[in-house]
Structures are given as C-alpha cells and as structure tokens.
User: What shape does this take?
Amino acid sequence: MMFFHLPSDDYIMLAGEHSLKIVILSIIIASIASYAALTMNQQVNRNSFFHHNIWFFFAAFVMGFGIWSTHFIGMSAYSLPIKMEYDRLLTILSVIPAMFAAFLTFYIVSLPKRTVKIYLIAGLLMGLGISSMHYTGMIAMKMEAIAVYQTGIFILSIGIAIVISFVALYIFSTLKRHTEKQSVRFLTSLLLGGAISSMHYTGMAAVTFYLPVNHVHTSLSHDNLNISFITASVTIGMLILIVFILFSSVIDRYVKYQTKYYDALTRLPNRRLFEKKMMQASSEKTLAIWHLHNLEKVNRDNSYTFGDEVIQQIASILFSFKPDSAELFRIEGNRFAFLNTLPHGEKPLIDAMREIAAVLKKPLSFNQQEIIIPSVCAWQTADQPKQIDHIYGDVLAVLNDPNLTYQHEVILYDSSVHTYTFEQEISNDVERAMQNHELFLVFQPKIHGKSYQMVGAETLLRWRHPKYGLLSPAVFIPVLENSGKMIDVTDWVINETCRQLEEWKNEDFPVKQVAINIPGNYVTSTRLLKVLKHALTKHQLQAECLELEITETSFVGAIEEAILAVNILREDGFSVALDDFGTGVSSLSYLKKIPISTLKIDKSFVDDVPSSEKDSSIIQAIIAIGRSLNLAIVFEGVETTEQIEFLRTTCEAPIIQGYCFAKPMESHELVDWYKTFQQQYQITNQITNQ
Assistant: This one.
C-alpha cells in the first residue's frame, strides 16, 4: 500500500542502500530499450510489408519492456534489511501502462501535422506511462514494512518523467529526417533512458520504509533477497527485446532491398538492378529488350487496373520462357530486358525470344477479353569490351528506329540498317556539346511573394548547336531521354551548377539555392547521389545549395523505389521539389508518402487566375494541401501583376517564378538583373508596407 504520512507514531524507519553497479546497469537497459523502440518507430514512415500499426505495437512492446525491466533491475539494486517478495500477477500487469502509453505516444508523434501541443500531449502520456508502471511495480511489493511517500518529491518524479519525455520526443520528431544518423538517435535514446531512470530514482528518493516498533525482524543481506522470479522475468524480457531488435533489423534490410531493386507490380528486378548488372565485368553479354507498344491506349480504353493485369501476365509469359543463363528485368513501364552474361548464352536466349514472339502474336485472354499487344524485341551481343559498353545503346537504336513496326519481330542490331536520323545525330552530338560548351545553363530567379526577396533560382538547359542553331529544349530533351543520354547530361548540369554556385559564393552573390531538374528514371539510380556528393565536395558546397526537381511521372510504375530514393536524398540534406504538380498522375496518397520539401504548381493552373473562378478555387485547394503538409509552394509561369497580387493574398508564403519578374538568363545577366531588381524591390517593399 502507498501512504503519504505515517498511520501512527509506532513505526521505526528502515535504512536502505543502492548498488551503484546495478543502478548503472538499469540506466543502460533503459537507453537500449529506448534506442530499439525509436528504431522500430522509424519503420512507421518507411515502406514496409507490415501495416504501420504493427510497427507501433513492436515499438511500444519494446519500450514497455524496457521501462519494466529498468524498474525491477533498479529495485534489485536497492537493499532493505527485511524479506521482500513481489505479487506475480501485479508485477506482470504493471508492464501494461508503459506499453499502452508508448503506443499512444509513438502514434501521436507520427501524425503528419505536429505542433508543440501535440508534443506536450505525447510527453504527458509517456511520462504518465513511466510513472504508472513504476508505482504499480511498487504496489506489487510484498513485505512487512509500509512505504510512505513525500508528496512533493512524489509529484516531482512524475513531472521529471513528463518533462524529459517531452524534450526527447520533440528532439526526435524535429530531427526525424536525421535519425538515420547514429548520433541523433543515440542522443534521443539517452534522453528517454534518462527520463525512465530519473523518474525511478526520484520516485525511490520520495519513499521511506517503516516497520512497527514491536516487530521482530532479522537483517538480511541484499544477496539473500527473494528476487529469483524478478531476475528471471527481466532476463526473459531483455531476451525478447534483443529478438525484436534483430527481427526489426532483418526486416528493414529485406524491405529496403525489395523496394530498391524490385518492381512492385511484377516482382521482377528493376532498372536499378539492371544498371548494376550492366556495369559488372563479363567476357560476353547478350541483351534483348521487349518493347510493348501503345500500353497507354490499353489503359485509356479499359482502366489502369486492367493495364496492370496485362503487364503482369506478359511478365509471367516472359519469365516462363527465360533461359537459365539469363536474367529478366522490368526496366521501364513498357520495356522488359533479358540479360545474359555467361559464355555461349546467345543461342538459348534468342531461341527463347522467338518462342515468346510466337506466343505474343496470338490473342491473350484478360478477364474474358482477348487482345493483342503490339510488341518488338531488339537484341545485340558482344564479346569485346568496347562493344559491351555500347550494347545498350545499340539495342535502343533499334527500338528508336523511325521505321520500326511492332509486329512481334526479333531484330538484331545492324549498324548499316539502323543509320543516323536527326534524333540519333542529336544524341551522338551531345558529348561534343558538353565538351565544347555548346550546352549552357540559364537561370530563372525565384522571388518571395511577400518580401520580394530572391530566395533562389532554377537552372535550365540550352543548346546552341553549330548546325541547327539554338535548339529548343522541347526538341532535344525528349531525344536525349529516349536515347538514355539525359543522365550523362544531368551529371554535367549538376557539376556546372555547383561550379556556378561556388563562383557566386566567392562573389557574395545572394543565390543560396538552385533547383535542378532530375529525369524520372534517374531519380531511383544509385549513381545520382554519388554524382551529387562528388560535385558538392569538389566545389565546397553544402547539400542545402541544391533543390532537386522531380516530376510526377518519376513515380509511375515505381512508386516504392521513388519514395525510398527521395527519402535517401532528403536524409542527406537535399531539398526535393515535386515539379508540374497536377499535370501528371497526381495522387494525394502518393503526395502524403513522398517526403518532398516543395510543391511546384504548373503554369497551366496559374494562367487564368484570378479571372477564372474555377482555376482560382483549384489554386486555393492546392495551397491548402501544401500548407497541411508543411511544404513550400512555388508558382511557375506567373506573368501579370494581377496573378502576383492574387497569390500574395491567397498564400501565406508564395514563391513566384515567371516572366513577371525575369526570364531565364545566363549567369552574368542574372547578376546585372539583380542590381536593378534590388532597387525596384526596395521601392516596392516600401509601398507595400505603407
């Protein structure tokens, strides 16, 4: 029983003492449990095969056991000169408050919209859970003495648990994107471990044990206390904790590997794994790529669900004919690749391709509907290093041939047949263009709509071709994307942008961040992060200097991979913007999952505001979505003062990009423009503030 004053004066006080070694052990156990629970709680916001509530349960289970173990290890560190036992049922039940509070706490701090009030509620719940477990455990003690608590210290112990829990959870949530770093997670674990331990030992400081004056007792050493049940229970609890830690680690690695290297729809290896295999050294390679034509028409005429079923069945057909010497990949939404890297594997692979062609020529049955999917297979083989390096480009040359028909043929690359077209010429010229500075960058400033300060710029690519003059990006970028050259060009853009940023930094020019467009199929490549880090290191810049703009089409058919890739980029400090929002395959469920920092509203939504009531309502809805997700909002293509004024009054912090302020300019033009704009800004800001 718990008393806050002595029932009578006929009691004598008992003196107890703590074992320092066991006290230290209890603090370590509390910190380990906190670390394990926080690690599991991270799985909630990752892509997993388990529902997030299961991860909440795992985290709460581990945290509850950690709090429970800390208490009873701490109690075993405290010795009294009397015999002491525990009520087994009450001892077991005492873990429930801690688990329940931990579950609610982790659930609350994982809500998409968090405020200081939310953290206060979470800290209160966790603190009360720790306290409830402690004092329930104290009530479970069976002994002849009575426990008397000092009210002030009793209340203080609960307050300490609440305050430290609040601080720890606030730090953990605020630095959530950095929690992959061991130091941040370790610090948070120490704080939570400190909350558990501080509460326990403050609670112990609040209690004094008394015996009746006439009670006859025998002094017992600490080693003779009957704590075998508690020791066994704590040992079992900690073993369970360790099992959960190992289980979480294994599941995490498995999920990461699956989402990183496998296509979610077909469960086949994806483009990322294909790129790795292509880069591996081998004495011979045979590559065959199946292109399924006009899948968009299938989706339009039926549904995307029907289209997914078509892809799954064709993937199953392709896999059933795959020779043992080859691997099958889904490298794009409508392309599958067979890769053989073993000697003498060409003939079995091409024989299999012809068998597949025979099957695809016949109507395929889908939901009592028969359709024929036009397709073609291009292939090439090579056994020399130089040829192997170009084998993918050779196959693409076949697939990009303007005379290509999709009659289920199996076509070998022939350099005399697949001759230059305008697209091939552009594709082949791009390497020279990068070396000879035919490619160059222009920059369009981004202006804060309320303060009229320049907050950054977007870099755009231009090509001054010696034969065709100034080529439109709308002409050459699709060519480079189709030929696979856009990734190399993007690497060049990243390095040139970082070089320009370094130059501006040395000149004290106030462009702190530049946005770079990243091609859809490059977002999920491991190469991108390496290129970014190399460029930043070379030019002595921080990741905050770059914002990576990705389009909604980056996520088509590879949503899990893209989310994982963006997570990694954000964890490394890069801002990530979702470009042209609303023009592609917008999905609010995707938007909720993708950890972007910025939403870019396409020009088509801005053009008719404020005159169009419908477009104005759409803009307001998008702004509300962005605000609820704590995203910066950039409006592209703003051209009139009326549009600026509408955005200023509708959005709390609009970032405006468009001809209303400046067209895209070369670096020296941007510097000159800024000098004039600064003077205009000072005048405009004065008028606005009047």
